Amino acid sequence: xxxxSSITNRGGPWFLAxxxxxxxxxTVAITxxxxxDFLQTDADxxxxxxxxxxxIQVALHDPSGELLLSARTLRELIRSLVERKKKGQQFDxxxxxxxxxxxxxxxxxxxxxxxxxxxxxxxxxxxPAHALGAIAEAAAxxxxxxxxxxxxxxxxPDCTLWFYDRTKAHKRRWCSMxxxxxxxxxxxxxxxxxxxx
Length: 197
Fold this sequence. Notes:
Layout: H1 20-25, E1 28-31, E2 34-37, H2 42-51, E3 55-56, H3 66-86, H4 94-101, E4 105-111, E5 117-123, H5 128-131, H6 133-145, E6 151-153, E7 162-164, H7 177-196
Helix pairs in contact: 2-3, 4-6
């Protein structure tokens, strides 16, 4: 993908993959035949981590671009590993292991506005790579424990989004009905209407 734009189209980045590492891969997407990279700055990465529910213990104050570079490197590494695994090919985990080695976290009890307590995991961020440890861990679990029959790419010909099919019948075909499923239905309806004229 060579042409990219910032977060402008249809409210992306989306959390529709049912698996956080795949959602992270989906921060590069083609929608309406235009490529979008939803990670353009360090702040975009931090915003995505926050939306993903990843609690970062220490804020990264220096917007040097180092976090962005590390995030994009990890994203492409995960994409390569997932694509190889999906094709049934062997993959080298060394690059991912480097991110996992820097993953420092601890549990924390929080209370929401209604007084309900829950345990979350907080990730320490001594460096940009530390901030991405949770994503690396999710990717490692997907690659080692995931059922790759259910790891799929959207069937819309103009879509590049991936998802983990957790539906009961395991017949999910689209990244989402709103983004692609309805577009296919509308296109088929228009073709049929044109043929009936």
